[in-house]
Amino acid sequence: MIRKLSFVLLGAVLIAALALGLIFWKLNAALEQPLQLSEAQTLEVQSGDTPSGLFQRLEREGVLNDSFWLRAHWRLKFSGYTLHSGEYQLRPAMTAHDMIRLWQRGEVVQHTLTIVEGWNFRQVRAALAALPTVQQTLGDASDAEVMAKLGQPDLHPEGRFFPDTYRFTRGVTDLELLQRAYARLETVLAEEWQQRSEGLPYQSPYEALIMASIIEKETGVPSERGEIAGVFVRRLDQGMLLQTDPTVIYGMGEQYRGRITRNDLRKPTPYNTYTNSGLPPTPIAMVGREAINAALHPVDGESLYFVARGDGSHVFSNSLDEHNRAVREYQLKRRADYRSSPPPRQATPAETVQ
Predict the structure, then answer these.
(1) Do residue 150 and residue 269 come from a single domain?
(2) pTM for this entry
(3) Cα dist. 195→161, 293, 333 in Å?
(4) Where among 189, 223, 242 does a domain terminate?
(5) Distance CA 337, CA 335 (A)
(6) What's the rounded Cα separation, in Å, for the pair 130 and 69?
(7) Mean pLDDT score across all residues of the chain
(8) 304 and 283 within one domain
(9) Under 8 Å between Cβ of 168 and 111
């Protein structure tokens, strides 16, 4: 009897071992199966999607087989794990196990928004609106309404968003990206303001930001930022008009068609630094850290004028006579709509201090 019972137990053990072996083999085969893809494909996982549902969906689409075993594997190994929503990049050489590791690590596809130095707020909003991976919530909201949504109802938006490349996942809102760029600008401006040179003609970090935006638009060669800043700071200190074309262009708005005339230089707008003394009321562009640093650390010297050579660099002059000679040499022989320096990347053309 005991011997018979032993044979029964041994048989049960063997059957169990075979069953476990079969389960292990099926599970391993399901995990190591290559995804049936001829090219890379994006799998979008939305909030509320479950791994079980995704496995079944992929099986229906013919991407994988044996979703039962994959669901069992997830329940056994990742019970209680929250699946990150977003986009996952599936590639032809990938196995089901590779895909599960992507899910487990939350390696979702990252998209980018690049805000360029010298852009104005209109260009920033256009770049945001053109991204299909961004949830558009601002629509036709006015600039003032946008700033109110950001919790800054009394602020002008120009210059308030830091130029950088921002990474994000599908579904982020346009407002969230603007919040990130706004916070980044505030941080950078505060850091640079704390390390500013002494004796500057600015009453606040915001005035330094306004100056930085002018420097950003006037600079074609990065190494000249500090020298250009020095010219503008000395003009402010001496009570001279800044006389910088980019501010005039900004004040013209959509009336600007690629050139400015003498009449434009006389036309009164809050941004016409040929008729108004001091800084314009707001920045005229988005500014990078280098332009802010230059505004807060202008290069010492005596130059009060500069004119573009036409290659992005400038000739700096200490006197009006020197400046007029440089203008005759570098500008008057050129076409009437010649501007002082090429645009920094995608920004509008910078102009000459007269």
Answers:
(1) no
(2) 0.80
(3) 21, 9, 43
(4) 189
(5) 6
(6) 42
(7) 86
(8) yes
(9) yes
